[in-house]
Amino acid sequence: MTTMTFAAITDADVASVRKRHPGAFGDPFQRALVVGSWAIMIGYLLYSFHMFEFYKLFQASDRALQMLSRMVVWRDMETWNYGNIYTGIAQTIAMAFLGTFLGTIVALGLGFLAARNTMPVGIIRHGVRRLLDVFRGVDQVVWGLVFVRAVGLGPLAGVLAIFISDMGTLAKLYSEAIENIDRKQVEGVRATGADQARIIRFGYIPQILPVFISLSLYSFESSTRSATILGLVGAGGIGMIIIERFRAGLFDQVAFVVLNVLVVIAIIDWGSGLIRKRFIGERGH
């Protein structure tokens, strides 16, 4: 038995092996495509760093450290307007609750109109779906700006922004849940001679109720966080207090307000978890 050395391998041998086993040597075009893709991605990343002037982050490090230190050291706490702060937090929770509640109720009806198995008329179903695309395709902050312009500064604009945004998202999710229910229960109710309202009540609602509760609670949690952001654009709530304190340079009060908001969100999250566990069980988490 003879052993072939590298020096004895000729180009003809390599070409012969390449022809018999093309996959073992890789595809030059694929390699070039991968290298080119990486080169384009790295080049675009470097261009993005240059375009957004990230170097300013290092130039502003002193100001950032000064601001952070003023957030940590709280001064003159006895002079802070606590009533205003906690009223803003209560207003934010109320905005999130009312907007989510209204959005949930309307979304349930729209979900039936957008589901294939409950709305056989295609033009209505597709019309509702496109309308929902508009509602959920526009960010809540943009809706907030629209309603601030329409109804003026204040929490009403925030409630309407949350209502529109949540309605679009929840109706889409409800319609998918309705389309995935077990048809046997619906057919069983229909076989009793029940009218359409009773079919929905006893055939559909019991099956989508866990999804309805879970999504509604999650939406409320999310809306509580969003309501804080909406306040920054003039839609009332604790966000307006944060931006006022920020503009006044009262960074210690900003930190205090943010910490309170985090505590409130944690409590809502904990309460929502208990409700899910009570009505849905462990699978709701």
Automatic annotation (TrEMBL):
A family per Pfam? BPD_transp_1
Source species, domain of life: Bacteria
What InterPro entries does UniProt report for this protein, alphabetically? MetI-like, MetI-like_sf, PhnE/PtxC
According to the record, the segments passing through the membrane are: 29-47, 93-115, 141-164, 199-220, 226-243, 250-268
Q: In the UniProt record, does the keyword Disulfide bond occur?
A: no
Heme listed as a keyword? no
Location of this chain's protein in the cell: Cell membrane
A GO cellular component annotation in the UniProt record? plasma membrane
Query: What membrane topology is given?
Result: Multi-pass membrane protein
GO MF, one annotated term: ABC-type phosphonate transporter activity
Boundaries of each ABC transmembrane type-1 domain copy?
Answer: 89-269
Q: Which UniProt keywords apply?
A: Membrane, Transmembrane, Transmembrane helix, Transport
Matching entries from Gene3D superfamilies are given as: MetI-like
The family database entries (CDD domains) matched by this protein are listed as:
TM_PBP2 (cd06261)
> According to its UniProt record, which protein family does this protein belong to?
Belongs to the binding-protein-dependent transport system permease family.
NCBIfam families linked to this entry:
PhnE
Name the PANTHER family for this protein.
Answer: PHOSPHONATES TRANSPORT SYSTEM PERMEASE PROTEIN (PTHR30043)
Q: What is this protein called?
A: Phosphonate transport system permease protein
